[in-house]
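<goal> How does this chain fold?
<body> The protein record starts here
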Amino acid sequence: MEKKDLKYSYNFLLEYKKAIDESSIVSKTDKNGLITFVNKKFCEISGYEEDELIGKSHNIVRHPSMTKEFFNNLWKTITNKEIFKGVIVNKKKNGLVYYVDTTIIPILDENKNIEEFIAIRHDITKVYEQKKLIEEQFIDELTLLPNRQKLLRDLKDNKITKIAIININSFRDINNFYGFETGDLVLKKFSQILLDKIYENIELYRVANDIFAICTKNKDNLKEIRDICTNIIEYFSLHPILINNNSFYLSISIGVARNCKDSAVQNNLLSKAEYALRIAKKRDISILFLDENIELYNKLKENKKLIEELKNALISNNLLIYGQKLINNISKKEKYEILMRVKLEDGSILTPYSFLKEAKKAKLYLGMTRMLVKKACEYFKGKDIDFNLNLTLEDIKDQYTMDFIVNAMEKTNTAKQITFEIVESEGIESFTEVSNFIKKAKKLGCKIAIDDFGTGYSNFEYIIKLDVDYIKIDGSLIKNINTDNNLYLTVQTIVGFAKALKIKTVAEFVHNEDVLNCVKNLDIDYSQGFFIDEPKELA
């Protein structure tokens, strides 16, 4: 080779070296594994100076998480004159962690003997940590099991055919009496036992605090998962979990569901299993297979259909407002209680009794409240008519809904026409929230009624503190007041209490003339019921 060619090749190699030095972390070791060379990038990322590295083993940057077995395999690979490739976790001089994608190449002499080793690495710390973060989003921190998000993602694959939802009954008692730390230890031990009980190709997830899921992709019958569930229940009925010298006998409830050809529920396997669990707990039984309870299964399908119809009603603005008159027994002046109805696509009308529970489960209820308030305020805008709106604690605690209601009242200038009705039990159980709402509502000019009074606690002290304008006496006390003297005396006491505080009273369920006469004799201010007026569509 000519001198010119040698010079060219040498310069070319220098350019290659420059390119590698700028992009890669490079080191060389002798055949005994002692460092003989490090480039600038090695020093930069490790935090060591060159003279601190030369002559040392790579153990100087070894992270404790890397096992001896890993490096034994690495050393075996390169001493067999094979190239090693893999991700290695290293430790900087300051103790921080970094990840490197590593290639180690044995350099051989002319006799094919190992002369030295060269290692070329790329810093993948950011990529690796990002990947790790994504993976951790699908891992339960306490048990290290896949979490609910991972289960939902796996369900999208449509490969899971059966789910068993497992719940520890009254687990809250363990947290309350022994503390959350002990509760966490119980959950960890519980998850370990579950892992021991399941077979190969069956996944275990932690879905919520004390709720776990067992899933299988096998398309056979329920025998496999039935055997597992039975085994789990029997085990925990006989074997306590021992934590800090305390024995915890766990009561287990399980709901099981599987995919089927029914398109109405095909893609809702988790909901089916959770529904089965709720019924199992309600019936106080250990395990319930949804498929074997046709009545429940059909009910689930009906509920799913109903939820879809409620969603469509909201989208298409098919939520109707009905009004039922309340008549002042002296002046005969009318006001209205606003009632919610849903019009289905086939033209039929649903009352809240048939849809409210499912609407709340499907998180549709608050949207329905907002639409009802908006329509009512728009209907009564500019009219010299007062009207009542029913609010639950769920409505009151939702800030967006409260802001929406205030905005609707301000736009229509209807605040002084509105009486908000709150159920007695909620007013007493959640006194602070309700009291704060009442104060805000009254500042806007609204009035307050306690609904269904007499069915709950009937705590007169709280009623005084809540500063209400009306007490609506529950219909169960009114409808037979003409024939039951005890009811008559009870209502008389309530009316006397209300008048002493200058609170107006309303009698519900006035369904005939005799009841109306009793109501008037007791000097109740307003009457409401089918004898007075039936609910009618307003808008």
Notes: Residues 3-130 form a domain with the Beta-Lactamase fold (CATH 3.30.450.20). The first helix runs from residue 3 to 23. The mean pLDDT is 85. The two ends are 99 Å apart (CA to CA).
